[in-house]
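Re: the 511-residue chain
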Amino acid sequence: MMRKRIVGIVVLMFLLSLNVTAQSIVWQLKPTDYSEIVRFGPDIYKVTKNGKFGLIHSNGDVIVPVTCNRITDFYEGKALVLGSETDNEGFPQVLGYLTDQGQYVQFEGTYYALKGLEFYSNGLLPANDAKGRRGYLDTKGNAELGFDGKWSGVMPFTEDHAVVFTGKKDNRKYHLIDKNGNNVRFLLGNGIELYGGTNVYDGQAVVWDTNRKFYKYNVFTGKSSSFKEPGNKQMDYLYCFMDVSNRAKTAPTYSFPEGQKGLQPVSQVNLYGYSEDGKVILPCQFSQATAFEDGLAVVTLQGQKGILRMVRGGADFALSIPTSHFVYDPGSSVNCAFQLTVPEVWSGKNMEVTVVDQATGERLATENTAGTYSFKMKPNSKESNYDISVASEGLALWSGSASYTFKKREMDLRVSLSIGSTKADKDDKVYVYATVTNPGSEAVTATITMVGSSAFKDFSKTETIGAGSSVKVSSYFSVPSGTLKNQHVSASTSRGGHDFKSGLTLTPFYE
């Protein structure tokens, strides 16, 4: 009784859950052959295959094919996508760039990103072309300045100016160009030969002559003024003195911001699933799982990576049992049934419902009719408990249990009375026989009783009668003298069955 009450409470709890806001988890991207899937930004994922990287949307749509070696962080709203091909100097090919709004711009030409300068600055990207000539690309990946072999070195643009060099290392000359590629003319005085300089910061470039005298040169007015030689001559990432600009040596790149955090994975026996407030949302089944971020999570299922999506609202999975108690005939099967409510997001999809006998581990075949599942079994105990699990699209979605109780229907024995002769034998007895038949499929032990009128010898005996078998017992009327009229006798058993004979006329032996 207690077990049935507990089962009733569990079923009620499932049904009550239909009235509250629920959540379900579905595939956003079914398991793939990518070896890694890592969130890169809102609805953008960095994927790995055969050692190469690419970018996809969460639904699997390809943003960048899996052909690149590296994806830089963002600077000025762009992250460079670098391929596996390199030029003679070992610089990686620029395949394109991703904006921090999630748009990808693919380059048509073949250009290579320079080491330490792998970022757009002031809208232009320093690069090499396929012939090793340096220049600048615009935001569409087209050549904007240079690539004619004139420059041996280029620095990033800043404040619409950039440092370039001509000549080789031993005879390398400094130039400052504007966005049209024109050299800035430095007016330092007669006879003063410019030796080197920096890029522009706050409208001024720091330059020095062959006598190591330093100047600040204003690119707007063309005027120069003396400048104290800096003690620290390290350059920042835009080729200005760090002591002047207070900028770092490397560019201040950034990544996409983290998304809104959601469910954290929970573990059980080295597998992961998702629960909330003690309620299982998705059973443990993943070898790896991330927290939900912006409603999405990356998981590994049977060695393959996929992306899950959280769907809030609607109903939970719920199980109810129309009938949990059965009376059955010995040896016969019982058709047990349960009803399964499915969240709307899974409605219409193929549900794989599994029923397993908790006692034997046997998996039972089920039939589904409009959400009512049934399975046949032969009871061998008063109660049977079953584990029920639901899966779809390779995901284990829900698990629960159901209990059923059984009562075996007892079949009545069949009783038949017969009298060999109504005339007494030489011992003054008229024998009456009771044949008791067991029509059932199991042996039955029963007490057989024969009673009759005053001349009858009452009889009682306990017998075990095999399945489909019969036993025959007897007693008698005592007829020592004179005819007996209106005699009667009846036979019955403790397991049902009855026969009766009356109005008997019995005669003694000597007549």
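The chain has a mean pLDDT of 91.
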